[in-house]
Design brief:
Its EC number is 1.2.1.32, 1.2.1.85. By secondary structure, the protein is an alpha/beta fold. It has 2 domains: 272 residues, Aldehyde Dehydrogenase, Chain A, domain 1; 186 residues, Aldehyde Dehydrogenase, Chain A, domain 2 (3-Layer(aba) Sandwich), CATH 3.40.309. Helices cover 38% and strands 22% of the residues. It has a 7-stranded mixed sheet with strand order 15-16-17-14-13-18-19, with helices on both faces. The chain has a 6-stranded mixed sheet with strand order 10-9-8-11-12-20, with helices on both faces. The protein has a 3-stranded mixed sheet with strand order 1-5-4, with no helix packed on it. Helix 10 crosses helix 11. The radius of gyration is 23 Å and the shape is globular. Bound molecules: nicotinamide-adenine-dinucleotide. The site of nicotinamide-adenine-dinucleotide has 31 residues, from helix 8 and helix 9.
């Protein structure tokens, strides 16, 4: 049995308790995890504080960028270990983990090495009304010790998306991965040590959220900022935890994302894109589409096309190349998704495909499998069209006019992502810009440029990360004013 320890000040250390990580493919225990209690969390924060006074602080920006590039290369070299960790924890298909999670982890470090190496500074030649002259320039200082708290759906991708810019800016981090996905973060800690990043710059603490490691970390007085990805409710709890000490937060939270399909869309491309946006990672991507609004003239065709795509998905062993779709992360999460399936039917939704637990057989019965599910006969008043479900599910609703489509798509408490499908170039730009979200795609979904702003509004988050937006969060500017 694999044992996963905390990583503090360059050493793997035991926790105060241990818990089992259960794999979602067949329900077997995949690792024994050391939960960090108050003492380990405190040691982690203190070691990060010390690292900020040590050799890390005197490295040049280019030296730091060089270290991050070496880290990216080492991630590529240890891709198979990271893959095994991600697959064991999440059950996601190997091809997806390879293409998305592991590749993006390396890319995150390379991208932020480039961003920080090329970053400029604000400067102004100042002339005051009373005739004084000065040069003003703003320096970026690291913000300090950053708590990085991430979820289980894209564990390594989301963790490195925050650790990379935090380290690029010269901070030290204390990372808490989800209790559901402790493995890849532990491999990353080994890689951090292998490439020679100074002790204490990257610390890893395992455990749960409330009443456990997550809460201990966010309430620790030594934390200078919190960057968090996860549920909106958890974001609210973290805001309350840091409020007494007024610490900055960057929040990437939940979504209830809409796709809007106009009758001039390229149908094949649209249905393929919708299938990707609804079912990728078993619907467990914050950007996944759970609401699909389709112009009435092509509604039946789009429903039929998407149902056909759902029926083509192959659930099964993540290492089998024919598998397209893994299980949900846990039985607890499946219970949540099943409760929405029941609720939809109770409230009169029509199940176009799926709707329950599939028969898996052959050793997979103990896993948290779910059928990809589509509903018709739903509307925006129903909880299944308002609340984030985070599974391979979507409701399809017809509309008549562009104005109606925009109104329906924006009728949500969330504001993360949207996708517009049309061949009318003007309409594409116009409708994409009308979406009250952080990311609006036209004729695609989840196509990312790491320099562009990423995040959401309303219940979907606070702030943006990506490119210079990340530098803005992970640094604290000091303006220097020199009289001339
Ligand atoms: P979650 O909020 O339950 O947990 C996320 C992390 O927070 C975990 O590490 C958990 O242990 C920790 N945590 C929980 N309660 C805490 C507390 N009180 N104090 C400190 N830490 C605490 O989320 P999840 O179920 O792991 O992930 C799914 C959610 O993440 C979905 O809502 C999804 O939309 C969201 N998500 C958002 C984005 C984005 O970029 N906007 C990306 C991926 C996932």
């Amino acid at each position: 049995m694999q044992e996963l320890r905390n990583f503090v000040d360059g050493q793997f250390v035991d926790g105060s308790a241990e818990f089992d990580k259960v794999g979602p493919v067949d329900g077997s225990v995949v690792a024994r995890v050391h939960e960090a209690g108050a003492m380990v969390v405190d040691r982690a924060v203190r070691s990060a504080q010390r690292a900020l006074e040590g050799p890390w602080a005197s490295l040049s920006v280019n030296d730091r960028a060089q270290l991050l590039r070496r880290l990216a290369d080492r991630i590529d070299e240890r891709a198979e270990d990271l893959l095994a960790a991600e697959i064991g924890d999440t059950g996601k298909p190997e091809a997806l983990a390879r293409r998305l999670d592991v590749a993006r982890a390396a890319q995150n470090f390379r991208a932020f090495a480039d961003v920080v190496a090329a970053a400029g500074l604000d400067s102004f030649l100042t002339e005051t009304a009373d005739g004084q002259r000065a040069l003003n320039y703003a320096l970026r200082r690291p913000i300090g010790v950053v708590a990085v708290i991430v979820p289980w759906n894209l564990p390594l991708l989301l963790l490195t998306w925050k650790v990379a810019p935090a380290l690029a800016c010269g901070n030290a981090v204390v990372v808490k991965p989800s209790e559901e996905t402790p493995s890849s973060a532990t491999v990353l800690a080994e890689i951090i040590a292998e490439v020679g990043i100074p002790d204490g710059v990257f610390n890893l603490v395992h455990g749960f959220g409330p009443g456990s490691t997550g809460e201990l970390l966010t309430t620790h007085p030594g934390i200078d900022a919190v960057t968090f990805t996860g549920e909106s409710r958890t974001g609210a709890a973290i805001m309350r935890a840091v409020a007494p000490r007024v610490r900055p937060v960057s929040f990437e939270l939940g979504g209830k994302n809409a796709a809007v399909v106009f009758d001039d869309a390229d149908l094949d491309r649209t249905v393929a894109g919708l299938a990707r946006s609804v079912f990728t990672n078993t619907g467990q991507v914050c950007l996944c589409t759970e609401r699909v609004y389709v112009q009435r003239g092509i509604y039946d065709e789009v429903v039929a096309g998407l149902v056909e795509r759902a029926e083509q998905l192959r659930l099964g062993d993540p290492r089998d190349p024919a598998t397209t779709t893994g299980p949900l992360i846990s039985h607890a999460h499946r219970e949540k998704v099943l409760s929405y399936l029941a609720m939809a039917e109770d409230q009169g939704a029509k199940v176009a495909v799926g709707g329950g637990i599939p028969a898996m057989g052959a050793g997979l019965e103990g896993g948290s499998w779910i059928q990809p599910t589509l509903w018709t006969g739903v509307d925006n008043s129903m909880p299944v069209m308002r609340e984030e479900i985070f599974g391979p599910v979507a409701g399809l609703v017809p509309f008549d006019t562009e104005a109606e489509a925009i109104r329906l798509a924006n009728d949500t408490d969330y504001g993360l992502a949207a996708a517009v499908w049309t061949q009318d170039i003007d309409r594409g730009h116009r409708v994409a810009a009308s979406m009250k979200v952080g990311m609006s795609w036209v004729n695609t979904w989840y196509l990312r440029d790491l320099r562009s702003p990423f995040g959401g509004s309303a219940l979907s988050g606070i702030g943006r990360e990506g490119g210079h937006h990340s530098l803005d969060f992970y640094t604290s500017p000091t303006n220097v004013c020199v009289a001339l």
